[in-house]
Amino acid sequence: QVQLVESGGGLVQAGGSLRLSCGASGRTFSNDYMAWFRQAPGKEREFVAGISRSAGSPSYLDSVKGRFTISRDNAKNTVYLQMNGLKPEDTAIYYCALRRLPIAKYDYWGQGTQVTVSS
Asked: When comparing pLDDT for 53 and 18, which is higher?
């Protein structure tokens, strides 16, 4: 089993920055893909950003490109999401997730961390 624990959420004014962290413990995999999702009230959960273990070619939701940066430290089994230029529409619960490649399904999820951006 893999346990994922997010941290770093909070309340920030529009234009501000936050850095989310997600630490993985338990079983690790030689080839995995870690991602951040978010879910705003009344909306479906959406993919925000993802990165492979090799950290090559991260993927981003179009609306966060140029503002958010995903990175990972494999030695620490941790993935980060640096969020700059935050907007009120970024307000959501942010979840960390992991899937084992080449499996498409995310088997492991964190408990989520709240990000609130005030206007």
From this structure: 18
